[in-house]
Amino acid sequence: MSSWISRATENRNAQLITTAVVSGVVVGSAILGFQKARRMYKVADLKASIPDVDEEHHATRLTEYGAATNAFAPSKEDKRSMELAARARKGDYDDDLILEQLARNRVFLTDDGLAKLRSSFIIVVGCGGVGSHATAALARSGCSNLRLIDFDQVTLSSLNRHAVATLADVGTPKVHCIRRRLEQITPWTHFDCRNELFSEATAATQLAPDANGQTPTYVIDAIDNIESKVALLNYCHKNGLPVISSMGAGCKSDPTRLFIGDISASTDDPLSKSTRRRLRALGVKEGIPVVFSTERPGPGKAQLLPLSDEEFKKGDVGELGVLPDFRVRILPVLGTMPAIFGLAVANHVILAISGYPQEYLPSKNRDSMYDGILGTLQGSEGRIAKDFGYNQEGLRIPITKDDVGYLIEEVYHGKSVVSGLSTRLALVRWQKPTTDFIDKRTPGQNNSLLRMNDLVCMTKEEATKHEKEVLRGGKMPGEVWDGKVVEAVRRKMEEESKYERFR
Q: DSSP code of 374?
């Protein structure tokens, strides 16, 4: 071994390599030592900057939620309520006292209806203004097994609309705030609090059966984030979970405009429109009850204002949100409206579970109209194909009845883009197709390459004129219709292209 070392050291290349390795080790050690020393100095400086605990700088203990506040220390009544709730959940509570507290609901819903309510398992997703009022009403009415899901904390601005939050709750998770306050009213209620963001990836876990294996009796959607809302409703619809959704309460002020109906019938609400549109793209067009307002915006009414130029100049507007794709502007909310929405949601759930009779707005039943529009479109495509020398016999178009309903209701709102009329509607191509708009690659199959974004909504008379002069003639749309119509079509197609990614 020693002879090998002596031979290696005599070799000049080996000497250079050895020197380089040793130098590298020394330099690396020096750099790491310097970084460690710098960290130590920074930590020391940080510790030195923390004032000593004295009368001027006093310390406070962290609460059970991690918030450093003792502005309102738990009162004796709070401690007594928590102890009572802990015992009640273990069964140490007289059932006769519970029935006495629920006496008014008992005589209204009957013993059988109340028993169904008490044995139900309800999940509330979103515990803000709407969700907190829904949860409070459910607990007060006898629902004794509730799962609460919300990632957010109580803020000062929450107090204008939250059902139970107080100043002492600011900075604490909304789910625990609701649990702590409602335990003082219905101590026997079991709360499963999930301080989490609902998402498509976690839906199966968050909507799973409870600890006893009971599947959710009902799910309440009180989310105001469009991505999470669509994910929740789509999951519930596809998995057969009863669900009711609250649409937007922001900028609303007229309680007489509130309705409960199928999602296909909800109108005049941007949140509802976006939700319906994305759900239709996922194949869900009806079958979900929603609470919505038909109140329209008007002069002097609250509205969501655009972000100022100053905010855009600061950089990426998306960075202003607490989460990706989450709202970055404060939505004007009258404190009473979320409460009305939340109570309407809870009312629906209570009646549905207990079996109490209820009737709501029927959904739009326009399938026969969609069939007629689809047939008219099929005929139009056949005539255009014939003009191009194709055989129109057996021609297929890749548009379904659901696609027709989506275009008529969601894109064109049941009105002609030309005249605004809502009767005798039809769908027709906007631009004359190119010669290769028929796919004949498969033997025996003759189908059009028509896309949804190629179509516009007109009355039958307007569609006939458009087909004659534009699609089968030599004119451009701008030569037949005025500039306002052309611009309206451009905006509609541009808007629809943004929703294509959800299909």
A: H
